[in-house]
């Protein structure tokens, strides 16, 4: 049987012959990508993350065209912060903390303007949004249940930031048996060397956590893939 492959590191990534592949878009929310949000409050240049928006848009378009599952995640907390551990709440020395009032509402609080997914990647009604209180998309969420219900076995991962929520989610997924491909130009960090280190870590030792690939190779393979 001929396999459908994506050119990747450390070796080609095989598209599923059985099961399904889903696109997972991590935390592309205003709190991290726009001024006045949590990312800027921590002293970061949020414009660094915006460079991946066109890449994620192109991948999203292909998944929608192929009618493949798409999941978006948002990191955020309840209004009373009851789901935010004290250690997380007090950590950091930024000008503002989780729950403080910023220019787009309370920072990292579910439902606030700053906690919404950016307009450029606005989810469709049939795309599931996973709200998460932690870094990983599996902890205290319904993501695993959704993936199992849809018989998803492979995950293509994009979003921010590479070394924090993206890497945590990829490691969680790997431990649960998912075949994970991280899109190299579809993820970004406030710190370039953190991104590069993460790419090298996940694909080290024969793909100990998963694969990495460039979006052009991924899109080319997906467009020619017969999903059955």
Overview of this structure, please?
With 228 residues, this protein is an alpha/beta fold. It is 33% helix and 21% strand. A hairpin with a 2-residue loop joins strand 5 and strand 6. Helix 4 packs parallel to helix 9 (215-223) and helix 7 (162-175) packs parallel to helix 8 (192-207). The chain is globular, with a radius of gyration of 17 Å. The two termini are 14 Å apart. The mean pLDDT is 95.
Determine the fraction of residues in helical runs and give it as a percent range: 25-40%
| Number of DSSP strand runs | 10
Question: Approximately what portion of the residues adopt beta-strand conformation?
Answer: 15-25%
Characterize the main sheet.
Answer: 6 strands, parallel
SSE class: alpha/beta
Strand order of the largest sheet: 7-4-3-8-9-10
Unreliable spans: none
Radius of gyration: 17 Å
The backbone outline, from C-alpha atoms, is: globular
Question: How many angstroms separate the termini?
Answer: 14 Å
Compact summary:
By secondary structure, the chain is an alpha/beta fold.
Which key phrases capture this entry?
single chain; 228 residues; alpha/beta; two-stranded antiparallel sheet; 9 helices; 21% strand; globular
Give me the secondary-structure topology.
Blueprint: E1 5-6, E2 13-14, E3 20-26, H1 30-33, H2 38-41, H3 47-50, H4 53-65, E4 70-75, H5 86-90, E5 101-102, E6 105-106, E7 128-132, H6 143-149, E8 152-160, H7 162-175, E9 179-188, H8 192-207, E10 211-213, H9 215-223
Parallel strand pairs: 3-4, 3-8, 4-7, 8-9, 9-10
Antiparallel strand pairs: 1-2, 5-6
């Amino acid at each position: 049987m001929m396999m459908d492959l994506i050119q990747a590191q450390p070796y080609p990534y095989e598209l599923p012959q059985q099961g399904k592949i889903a696109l997972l878009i991590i935390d592309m929310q205003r709190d991290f990508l726009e001024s006045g949000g949590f990312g800027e409050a921590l002293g970061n240049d949020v414009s660094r993350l915006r460079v991946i928006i066109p890449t994620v848009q192109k991948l999203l378009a292909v998944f929608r065209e192929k009618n493949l599952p798409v999941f978006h995640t948002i990191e955020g907390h309840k209004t009373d912060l009851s789901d935010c551990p004290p250690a997380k709440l007090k950590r950091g020395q930024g000008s503002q903390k989780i729950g403080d009032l910023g220019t787009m509402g309370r920072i990292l609080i579910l439902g606030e303007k700053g906690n919404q997914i950016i307009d450029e990647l606005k989810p469709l009604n049939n795309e599931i949004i996973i709200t998460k209180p932690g870094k990983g998309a599996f902890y205290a969420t319904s993501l695993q249940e959704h993936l199992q219900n849809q018989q998803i076995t492979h995950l293509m991962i994009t979003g921010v930031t590479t070394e924090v929520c993206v890497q945590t989610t990829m490691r969680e997924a790997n431990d649960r048996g998912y075949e994970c491909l991280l899109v190299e130009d579809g993820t970004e960090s406030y710190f370039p060397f953190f991104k590069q280190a993460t790419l090298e870590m996940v694909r080290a030792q024969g793909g100990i956590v998963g694969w990495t690939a460039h979006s052009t190779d991924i899109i080319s393979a997906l467009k020619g893939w017969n999903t059955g």
